[in-house]
User: Fold these one by one.
Assistant:
Number 1:
Amino acid sequence: MSLAFHKFHEGPIIRLRWTTQTDLQSRVAVGVGARQHLVECLAQLKVGKRVLLLYPSALAATWGEEIEKLLDQSDYQVSVLQMPDGEIGKSLECLSEIWDTLQLHCLDRTDTIVALGGGALTDLAGFAASTYLRGINLVLLPTTLLAQVDAAIGGKTGINLISGKNLAGTIYTPQAVIVDPAYLSTLPTRDFTSGLAEVIKYALLENTIAGASEYKIGPRRFFDILSESLPNINEEDSVEHIHPLLPGIITSCIKMKLATVAADLREANLRRCLNLGHTLGHALEKVSDYKLAHGEAVAIGLVFATRLAVKKNLIGEEALNRLTTLLEDVSLPLEIPGEYDKQAISQSMLHDKKRAGEKIKLILPKGEIGSVDYSYEIPTSEIAHCL
Ligand code: GLY
């Protein structure tokens, strides 16, 4: 399958191609206004005429209606299913409702699920698309910064079980991902800031990704670009209009993620580095009962990993100072809030899937900003002490 990128859109939209070892291909288009080209994209993919459009109810009156109208004006037969917002939608009940709706409207393997929403919805839609008739087409329109730079890219899908998050899932490559930074204009400030933690994470991984994949470092380091630009991309910029640097920043993150996934789809090696800051981050989210947003918890995890790396003489103190300055500049937290029990957090970290016997594998910055050791082993007995 190939897509004529030059025909996709005449304009400032950046097209990226993602080919994995398994020869699955996905197309990612990034640009303000890219969402308006959904119908064109479906036509280029040569998919069947039936579409199931999914979006969270919170987006119904805005972006949901816009995409629905766009599809209604085309010659696709569109069914719409509104899903609950956030993690609560990643349930067996919602999954089953999607499967039943696909059946009810007779979608076959040539047809498509189009999912508009944040990472929870794109995960759920991906799981449904990968399992219905053993796989139907999937086009994602991520609407949060977190989903645009991470969740909707790379093929991870999943739902939550009572015993934990993302415990059932698949890896399934969407046919296309349309990333429109205009969606960020209505994103609540806290969600936008939270997404910046994942953006900053990529800056801490750039050299490592470049060393083990086809990603090429540009004339300036991503961390330097972010240090200079992020303090100017403030709440007003994100809510009132799209800062001109934002599409480029999002594109850089996506390029790093695509290169990582192309090198290691199944997270046997390089892809593990994307978990930088997440061992503590996930534990914090859980212990805070998800009161801390994902990105806030990851920001604290990035500081923890860098502080630990300084302690272990893997990296100099200056790297830690530069990171904390950048996180502070964008109003992300650095420290575990006092109300959360460190004992409970370290216990939760020890249940992390990266534990191997008496040791836990952490991703720690090493050498200089942009490089990490992604299999640094630390005895579990040290974890509580490190916190
Ligand atoms: N969110 C990390 C990954 O996709 O591997």
Number 2:
Amino acid sequence: MMTTLSVNVNAIAMLRNRRDLPWPDLESLARIALEAGASGITVHPRPDQRHIRLTDVPQLSTLISRSFPKAEYNIEGYPSEAFLDLVCRIRPDQVTLVPDDPAQPTSDHGWAFETAAELLAPVVGRLKAEGMRVSLFADPDPAGYEIVPQLGADRIELYTGPYGATHSDPDARDAELSRLSLAGRRAQALGLGVNAGHDLTVPNLPPLIAELPFLAEVSIGHALTADALEHGMAGAVRRFLGALSGSEA
Ligand code: PXP
């Protein structure tokens, strides 16, 4: 099973929003990414629309369904009523629920499943009834993972931020890899699919994939956007796909 690449376009939206101008253009960059071999597009709309705007969400959905019917649309966010109404209207292939406060600059932790079970159970039920795959953002610590299948969720997304932060410390990197591997294997044993995301890069993907070859999907925004400045969007996607297939940069 090959791990698929979903390109998170939030960082591109952030750059666009510096000006009251329509570029860089999300739709055309998403098209380039999908043409270059990415399997999907991820957006993380927030109530203040500081990155993704509400108008971007249906536009990217239309691009995918019209021009890339095999590609997947993944919408991530905190399950507020407004967020749930939005995803039930758009019906992406996958919804990734994150526990972040809307004011946080980026997601930086997974769900505490035991405490959040009461909140998540009806939300997951609603999304599943509408036919969407549900993934829950998770710290690389298997405590509470047994609750995830009981909630009816299909996958977890392992939070790889701490792994990404070890880029210049090989010992710390190995420790984070073991945590991710243990957590991923526990999720797999519970019958869950396993995604991963946050601070994944061309250099840190090959060791991650070697340790967790069963990863279904990685979603990558910041480092891929940075890479695209140097290599172009198509070049960056090809470099990340190369890293996913195990080759070092
Ligand atoms: N997964 C989740 C749940 C996220 O919130 C983000 C950042 O929006 C990512 C993946 C992508 O992280 P990065 O931008 O560091 O690649």
